[in-house]
Amino acid sequence: MEEEIRLMKGNEAVAHAAVRYGVDGYFGYPITPQSEILETLEELMPWETTGMVVLQAESEIAAINMVYGGAATGKACMTSSSSPGISLKQEGISYIAAGELPDSAQSSHRRLIIFRRPKVAVTATIISSCSPPRRFRKWPTL
């Protein structure tokens, strides 16, 4: 039995992982270098197989507020952006953390690496609310 091995970029891997995990909703605003996540999800069309909602929001702030609303209803939601976009989403991220709601936000960065000629590498950081859902929390007993 042969295993299929597929090489892909990090943003593509994030999109495939979201579908395999069973994320209920992805809300994003296209900004390089993370636009590939939205593009890959559009190619995969997970709404036909898993019912995942993939929506391009009108702004970064709208995207994080959509994640906030989805997480508040118990759905697994995610968003992604670049560093300036994550800065715009800070208020929404703080609301999600204060509400102790699970979510996932992915931040893509460009990093300039200079060898003999300039090259650009993309790194990614996964930001997630640290609080588990309330139903999974273990309270100390008296």
What can you see in these coordinates?
It is a single chain. The chain is of the alpha/beta class and 142 residues long. The chain is 38% helix and 25% strand. The chain contains six helices and five strands, in the order αβααβαβααββ. The chain has helices at 10-21, 35-44, 46-49, 60-72, 83-88, 90-98; strands spanning 25-28, 53-56, 77-82, 104-114, 118-128. Strands 2-1-3-4-5 form a five-stranded mixed beta sheet, sandwiched between helices. Strand 4 (104-114) and strand 5 form a beta hairpin. Helix 4 (60-72) packs parallel to helix 6 (90-98).
Concise account of the structure shown:
The protein is an alpha/beta fold.
> Which descriptor suits the 3D outline?
globular
Question: β content, as a range?
Answer: 25-35%
Distance between the termini: 54 Å
Structural class: alpha/beta
Name the helix and strand elements from N-terminus to C-terminus, one letter apiece.
HEHHEHEHHEE
Q: Cα-atom Rg, whole angstroms?
A: 17 Å
Unreliable stretches, pLDDT < 50, 5 or more residues?
Answer: 116-123, 129-142
Which strands sit side by side, in order, in the main sheet?
2-1-3-4-5
Structure summary, number of beta strands: 5
How many DSSP H or I helices?
A: 6
Relative helix content: 25-40%
What is the average per-residue confidence, as pLDDT, rounded to a whole number?
79
